[in-house]
Amino acid sequence: MTALYPPEPFRIKVVEPIQLIPPEARREALRAVGYNVFTLKAEDIFIDLLTDSGTGAMSQHQWAAIMEGDESYAGARSFFRLKEAVDDIFGFKHFVPTHQGRAAENILSAVLVKPGNYIPSNMHFDTTDANIRARGGRPTNLVIEEAFNPQSQHPFKGNMDIAKLRAFIERTGVANIPLGMITVTNNAGGGQPISMENIRAVAETYHSFGIPFYIDAARYAENCYFIKLREPGYEHKAPIEIAREMFSYADGFCMSAKKDAIVNIGGLLATNNDEVAQAIRNELILREGFPTYGGLAGRDLDAMATGLYEGLDESYLAYRLGQTSYLAAKLKEYGIPIIEPPGGHAIYMDAGRMLPHIPHAELPGIALATELYLTGGIRASEIGTVMFAYPDPDSGEMIYPQLELVRLALPRRTYTQSHMDYIARVVADIAQRASTLKGYKFTYAPKLLRHFTAKFEPL
Predict the structure, then answer these.
(1) With the C-alpha atoms ordered 183, 188, 194, 198, is the resulting torsion angle positive or negative?
(2) Does domain 60-310 have CATH number 3.30.420.310?
(3) What CATH code is assigned to 23-52+314-458?
(4) Which one of the listed residues 147, 218, 270, 380 is annotated catalytic?
(5) pLDDT, tens digit, for every residue of 208-239?
């Protein structure tokens, strides 16, 4: 079946030139930065799929809101416009803005996580995982087993395994679990959604043990649209109604607004607990700024207030998920192994299956990511051994992730159908000679979040 590309619910008003530099220039650029595509110059990238975080195109309404930004240090009008949107959509008693999602995670971890604590979730993504570890905590992933089967067509592969969660809490002890989480959508596992039924069951499980429940909500709007499309009883509900129900089950949330609020910078942190809220504000003042600006300019707060609603617009979400589905279908036409069904914000290529001759320790995701750039000037992110392997705190044995993935994250309202077709052709070219690709080794790696600044060399 031929893939159909959805018409964009917008027209282009401003363009940014991009260029494909020659192959020899790409090879030299990659060698100069230690074969880590994170550290390449953006001007040397043709199509940038490294992340969908802060890389989308803002609307004319958001740019107009920026002009109304109030840059008062405290109590700015921009904060109260944001507060109206946050109260309307999320409904928590207290919230603060932060400069991005990891700042919210850092503050939440600083307030609640102590050394030796365990924090369960379906799957923690990289910065959440690192912020918990930086405080001496142990992030624990309890996603359903279908998440590790790339070809499973389960409609909600991001779901938490409730039996595993209950057993984990009973085994670990409530005193060692200061909060429980869930990530919507499940970025580490292929951008897969979580059902409302599962969110409700997760909340009931945590609350039955007296454990506060926090949602990592970076892509909550996409998750809400998946619920509308796939979960009986929600087909006639608007995404904002679904969002309100989702957050009604939680005690708080943290969020990078650089995703579903479609802004270039910003984050949110909220709670219903008065004491936790005061501790959050104290930490925020120390690290980020006054509680009504949280490390952001007033104009950024206004852009976020507008973008929160635009990210929930049904025509936009239909296009967003449709563009991702189109690229997935094109890759499948070429026989490329991917996580199925496709998520909302990215395609996850199965580097382990594409490069079965390269073991975990030789970094198959890096081999595929570097070849994407060398072949077509495309930048993508490894989500495998480099991002998620870690030494067991007790035994010291290296624990590898079950999946070796390379993520093609699609910036919002940014690339066109011809770009998707080009990406698919480049990947198909690589797949034809996949057996000739070689592995890589580390030449430098920091302790946490090593994928951002590590250096490699080919074997």
Answers:
(1) negative
(2) no
(3) 3.90.1150.10
(4) 218
(5) 999 999 999 999 999 999 999 999 999 999 99
